[in-house]
Amino acid sequence: MRLRTKRLVTVMLIICMVFGCSTGKVKADEGVTYAESVDLVQFDFSILSSGEACVYVKYTGTLETFSEAVVTIKIQKRFLGVFWKNVDIGDGSSQWSASSQRTYDTFIKTVQLTENGMYRANICLEIKDVNGNSEIIE
Fold first, then answer.
1. Chain segment 55-76, per-residue pLDDT in tens
2. Helix (H, G, I), strand (E, B) or coil at 56
3. Would you tell me how many other CB atoms lie within 10 Å of the CB of residue 43?
4. Model confidence pLDDT, tens digit, residues 80-131
5. FRET label pair with 70: which of 6, 24, 40, 99, CA 20 to 30 Å apart?
6. CA-to-CA distance for 56 and 54, rounded, in angstroms?
7. Which CB contacts under 8 angstroms, 24+ apart, belong to 99-102?
């Protein structure tokens, strides 16, 4: 019985290690979103050695159809190797939103992280066109 328990624990640890050690980087084969109301979208998430996290979102809308861009950002910290929890990114909130009606714009959000660990940014860019339709780019 003890051998069976040890094997089960070993298998569970291996599974946690495999899923817990992913880099979280976008791979080339994951694809790039094409949207009709936007010509260019760039997302970037980086953490400086000082612990400051920076989220960068840049877009260029299509002149004929673009109406508004709304960005929503959440920063999450990995815990227990496979789960993610939202981080307070200011004013007691776990998300930050901003909007722009400019055809091209850049959104930058910085946050001072308080703990070491693995972090990721969830970025949602909603592009609205002149007809009231929306395209979501994540």
1. 999 988 888 888 899 999 988 8
2. strand
3. 18
4. 888 888 888 777 778 889 999 998 899 999 888 888 888 888 898 888 888 8
5. 24
6. 6
7. 99/68, 99/69, 99/70, 99/71, 100/68, 100/69, 101/67, 101/68, 101/69, 102/69
What one-letter code names the amino acid at 24?
Answer: G
44-55 pLDDT, tens digit each: 889 888 889 899
Strand spans (E) along 2-37? none
State the pairing for strand pair 38-47/52-61. antiparallel
Instruction: Count CA atoms within 13 Å of residue 101 on its CB side.
Output: 2
pTM above threshold 0.90? no
Closest CA to 46 of 128, 101, 111: 111
